[in-house]
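Dear colleagues,

I hope this message finds you well. In preparation for our joint manuscript, I am sending the Transmembrane protein (Nitrincola lacisaponensis) sequence together with its predicted structure, so that both groups work from identical material. I would be grateful if you could confirm receipt.
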Amino acid sequence: MLRIGLLLLIVPGVALLGLFFYEQLQISDCRLEGGHWDYLRAVCDQQPHPFIPLMARKPLLVNGGMLLSCLGLLITIAGLYRRRM
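The corresponding structure tokens are as follows:
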């Protein structure tokens, strides 16, 4: 139970960070080439586009990841509590 809880606690956060930094790498490559990043289409072009945060573009992914992390925290706490009894 403790291992499952720790996996649920850590993996969603690491996956979201990986997605975020992968996108940031693409954005910085686009800016170095002199382009502008289109957040909705995830492409580099020559027109300026407004910033749209990841939470607004992929709410199910972000909220689901955070809910899984919270569930993992509760399972981890329950696993630690059961072990002491």
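For the figure legend, we might mention the following. The longest strand covers residues 36-38. The chain has a mean pLDDT of 93.

With kind regards,
E.M.
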